[in-house]
Design goal:
The chain is mostly helical. It is built from nine helices and no strands. Helix 3 packs parallel to helix 5 and helix 4 packs parallel to helix 6. The longest helix is centred in the first third of the chain and has 50 residues.
Length: 277
């Protein structure tokens, strides 16, 4: 289009110069003839015709570009709405994920088969993920379920402290609370270049936590007081989080790897439920 405009301008200039030369015989093209100066507003028929033909073409191209951009924007908006709804659905499910486990412990009056070490690791894991999302200022729908899970996790740990045989000492409890508080405060103050370490810690702790529970189940050939519904909900939750990460978290590959790892561990626990029951 730009090339065409330049050519038309050149042709128009040549035609104007030629007409001036014809009206002023013997004079140079660059000289002007008094009383015969061509008005800048006047255009040659050829120039007017070509200009009129180029306008609709440019308008059509512009309209097509706007239409494509509008369609892409609408599609992106729909994806964000679906992903946002999915994120809040995960949060709603997280609010009841561990309640069956709590109920089972209370009803049986026992915490047999539940690894306290695994619960500590899972608490650190949830904290790491929560702080990572908060530092990156990701949308609320991508991490809100971690708050609900942490509250339920704290309830389970307190129940283990009270019902464990042998009993858990007050010193042990104090040290655990201090360590968790120090980790949370330190994570919130990490420089930006160290933020990826939170996900590294989360991934390692997730593997250790799941591995500890899987090992305990294997050695006892039983899943003890573990409830199956939290495992199923976590598999769904991790799968849904892969979708929301692709849409809202700038396709964060570290997060995607983390959710894949978590889902794999929960699937392994699900297989143990089938094998030992």
């Amino acid at each position: 289009m730009r090339t065409l405009v330049v050519c038309l301008t050149f042709y128009s200039a040549c035609a104007t110069g030629f007409l001036s030369a014809q009206q002023c015989p013997g004079s140079r093209v660059s000289q002007t003839c008094p009383g015969n100066r061509v008005s800048s507003r006047e255009k040659s028929p050829l120039s007017s015709l070509r200009s009129s033909l180029t306008i609709p073409r440019a308008s059509a191209s512009s309209d097509e570009g706007l239409s494509k951009r509008g369609g892409a924007a609408e599609e992106g908006s729909v994806k964000k709405k679906v992903a946002g709804a999915l994120g809040y659905l995960v949060t709603a499910g997280a609010c009841i994920t561990k309640l069956p486990q709590v109920k089972r412990i209370v009803d049986s009056g026992s915490v047999d088969g539940i690894s306290l070490t695994s619960q500590y690791f899972e608490t650190v894991s949830l904290t790491s993920k929560l702080v990572y999302h908060k530092l990156h200022e990701y949308p609320l729908s991508t991490w809100l379920e971690n708050v609900a899970l942490l509250v339920q996790q704290a309830i389970i740990i307190v129940l283990i402290w009270k019902m464990a045989v042998p009993a858990v000492s007050p010193v042990h409890v104090a040290l655990a609370i201090t360590a968790q508080s120090a980790y949370t405060m330190g994570a919130l103050k990490l420089p930006e270049k160290f933020w990826p370490l939170l996900l590294v810690a989360k991934t390692v702790v997730t593997i250790l936590s799941g591995g500890a529970q899987i090992k305990l189940n294997y050695l006892s050939q039983s899943t003890g007081q573990l409830a199956w519904s939290p495992v199923l909900l976590r598999i769904f939750g991790n799968t849904a989080r892969m979708v929301t990460t692709l849409v809202f978290a700038r396709k964060d590959l570290s997060l995607l790897f983390l959710y894949c790892t978590s889902a794999a561990i929960q699937i392994a626990l699900g297989i143990q439920f089938i094998m030992y029951r």
